[in-house]
Amino acid sequence: MYTLSKEAWNTRMMVKISVLGVISFILMFFEIPLVWLAPPFIKIDISDLPSLIGAFAMGPMVGVIIQLLKNVLNLVIEGTTTGGIGELANFVVGSAFAYTAGFVYFKKKTFGRAVAGLLLGTVVMTIVITVANYYVMFPFYAKLFGWPIESLVEMGTAVNSNIVDLKTMMLYSIVPFNLLKGSMLTAITILLYKKVSPLLHN
Is residue 7 over pLDDT 80? Predict the structure, then answer.
């Protein structure tokens, strides 16, 4: 019976990870604002999908590597307007989602654990991005562009009158936005994974 050498297996694994990383990078371009939920500078995309699929198929650390590739490609090809802080935040948040979901599922590959992993990953992602936005991203953007924090809050108030300060911005905009994003990615991953996983396992 023919078996792949360790070198050939590693090469094939690297090719799969690279392809998923490129797809993830491309998906970053397809983003839309949810103006009824968040200020227009906060947009939703599904670029975390390849890392979730990779984490399910090849292990949680693969999901992290795909997130790294996506953001490195974005830095190199698109450049950055945030001194790399935005890309770092995207990497940390996406990795938290993919690693958590992959860790739960990869231990025992059942449908129930896939759903549980994705739901737990959504919660972890939401917590991480909320903390990052409150303490790092929003203050950084305000300083970078010379805006007072109040200007960012006013953009949120225009969407939801309950938003009156940075804390309520997190509560009424960032948290529901990311719960929605995580739920959407959960549904798409569940629908697609079994269809594409044979390509990653063969």
Answer: no
